[in-house]
Design goal:
GO terms for molecular function: copper ion binding. By secondary structure, this protein is an alpha+beta fold. The protein is built from two helices and four strands, in the order βαββαβ. α1 crosses α2. The radius of gyration is 13 Å and the shape is globular.
Length: about 90
């Protein structure tokens, strides 16, 4: 499973979240989409990596702007790590 997080600009309400979720969810290979309105983060789950250009096109179709991919520390399945980088 692959998880990628992107920064989206312009979302201001629940309708924005729904529009982005719906359009990104249509991209081939995407199995899940989570949108955090407060931060503008869109997390995409897929079985294999999805081309960022396809995510960008979906976000634009929804009426917003993709600002880029957010690089997070990789999570190990079953890990209780919070991703803060302070784990031992």
């Amino acid at each position: 499973m692959t998880v990628a997080t992107y920064q989206v600009e312009g979302m201001t309400c629940g309708h924005c979240v729904s529009a982005v979720t719906q359009e990104v969810g249509k991209v081939a290979g995407v199995s899940g989409v989570e949108v955090d309105l407060a931060s503008g983060a869109v997390t995409v789950t897929s079985a294999a990596p999805v081309d960022a250009a396809l995510i960008d096109a979906a976000v634009v179709e929804a009426g917003y702007e993709l600002r880029g991919k957010v690089d997070l520390l990789p999570q190990v399945s079953g890990s209780s790590c919070c991703g803060s980088g302070g784990c031992h």
